[in-house]
Amino acid sequence: MPEPILQVRNLTVHFYTYAGIVKAIEKVSFDVYKGETFALVGETGCGKSVTSRALTQLIESPGRIVEGQVLYYRDDGSVVDLLKLSEEEIRKIRGNEIAYIFQDPHASLDPLYTVGHQIAEAMEVHGKISNIKEGIQKAIQILKSVLIPDPERRVKNYPHELSGGMKQRVVIGIGVSNNPRILIADEPTTALDVTVQAQILELLDKMKREYNATIILITHNLGVVAETADRVAVMYAGKIVEIGSVDQIFKNPLHPYTQGLLKAVPNPMTKIEKLEAIPGTVPNLINPPSGCRFHPRCPKAMEVCKQKVPELKEIEPGHFVACHLY
Ligand SMILES: Nc1ncnc2c1ncn2[C@@H]1O[C@H](COP(=O)(O)OP(=O)(O)OP(=O)(O)O)[C@@H](O)[C@H]1O
Ligand code: NI
């Protein structure tokens, strides 16, 4: 039996804007197992980043976590609900046991400090080193492990002296500097060109093996999912519509939305090359559609889909779908 490291239950985040309440994510539930790469996929605006940030209470005003539990299984076997922790308690875990790698290295790195200083600082915040000097020595080791050539020299570089790919490696270095148990990578390769993307994904995999971490990978790139993930959750308009192993999702997609997504891209598993966009547009989350949020775009919609929110049901072992067809 796979051991859970996270159990997310009914996670709901709303943004209180002048235009109205944006129901960004609604009763999102999933498990993440120890040592796996768990991918969160879906179109832009479906709630992937909000979900991943909410896991450690990283939601800023006007957003609020209005409901849910994030059960975190610690190394010592104890379980804690991350949403119940105080700001001080969660800050000890965030960036330490649970670390983030964000999409944009420009936003993640401070232009005023050397990369060595920034890696050292990330460790110092969590008491992993006693001074910045010791940190710089460790930073050189980290730069080496993220495959940056000539780390003794690079450690003294400022971000602008590095290429986009190198900067993203530094961001990954900061992410793994405290040896996190969970690494949350939000579109870690989107800003990079294709060859560098492949190198960064390979690097993430290496980090996972070396540091024995669990990875939550957020992406809208299904090719990346097929290549790097063990399991996948598909999101649509703030809800999870399907969860399964990579094989289950790619070879036997159950939800009409997942089926549409796979048709919309060259399917990396079945080598379908025909591109087909899903008709219609992503709904407004201030007034989301009633019942199943996908029903206005669904080719298989039935009367019940307009009225009743479908629950996630296990159709075959480990394969869950929220759809009235099943
Ligand atoms: N600060 C905010 N104020 C209002 N609405 C917000 C805010 N942040 C996020 N949202 C809304 O929450 C929803 C989910 O956004 P989120 O960033 O999680 O999407 P995503 O799936 O990560 O998209 P992308 O692939 O573009 O990164 C969107 O509808 C977005 O408009
Ligand atoms: Ni996002």
From TrEMBL:
UniProt keyword annotation of Repeat present: no
SUPFAM superfamilies attached to this UniProt entry: P-loop containing nucleoside triphosphate hydrolases
GO MF annotation list: ABC-type nickel transporter activity; ATP binding; ATP hydrolysis activity
Catalytic activity: Ni(2+)(out) + ATP + H2O = Ni(2+)(in) + ADP + phosphate + H(+)
One GO process term, biological-process aspect: peptide transport
Main location: membrane
Compartments where located: Cell membrane
Domain of life according to the entry: Archaea
GO cellular component terms given for this protein: plasma membrane
Domain ABC transporter: 8-262
PROSITE patterns: ABC_TRANSPORTER_1 (PS00211), ABC_TRANSPORTER_2 (PS50893)
Sorted UniProt keywords: ATP-binding, Cell membrane, Ion transport, Membrane, Nucleotide-binding, Translocase, Transport
EC number(s) on file: 7.2.2.11
InterPro entries: AAA+_ATPase (IPR003593), ABC_Ni/Peptide_Import (IPR050388), ABC_transporter-like_ATP-bd (IPR003439), ABC_transporter-like_CS (IPR017871), Oligopep_ABC_C (IPR013563), P-loop_NTPase (IPR027417)
Topology relative to the membrane: Peripheral membrane protein
Subunit annotation: The complex is composed of two ATP-binding proteins (NikD and NikE), two transmembrane proteins (NikB and NikC) and a solute-binding protein (NikA).
Protein name: Nickel import system ATP-binding protein NikD
